């Protein structure tokens, strides 16, 4: 069987996608390069997102993970119950009522915490959405690569079939 030469990226674009290399988008061009140079297409979306993350992004993720945990909820419930207990005058021996009922200072603290925590959680959710977009882009590249490789395999099988058919036709003529 004759050795096949590797097609250029331009020829791959024309043969497999039916477009010139100038007409393909960045993802398609990247996949065609990877096919041509026989390199892996799949990459870790989390690793890519982590590479692009700034200090503020990582901090927002950490705050959101802590603020959305059962440990934080239980700790905060204990702090709130303690605050209200101390300021309600129940333990009369301590007499440390710095925020008497209706706990106006507690309301201020809770409002401030919510005002700061909400945008931080939104930043983390935006980063999560960005990770999802990166993952979808990478999935597209892998799927495109798989389709192109299947098309190339079909071409090879068709060439092998044609060569075998030609060989069997030649053998049949020789027998006659």
Automatic annotation (TrEMBL):
Assigned keywords, A-Z: Membrane, Transmembrane, Transmembrane helix
UniProt-listed Pfam families: DUF1003 (PF06210)
Repressor is among the record's keywords: no
Keyword Coiled coil: no
Superkingdom of origin: Bacteria
TM stretches of this protein: 63-83, 103-123
Protein name: Putative membrane protein
Organism: Sphingomicrobium lutaoense
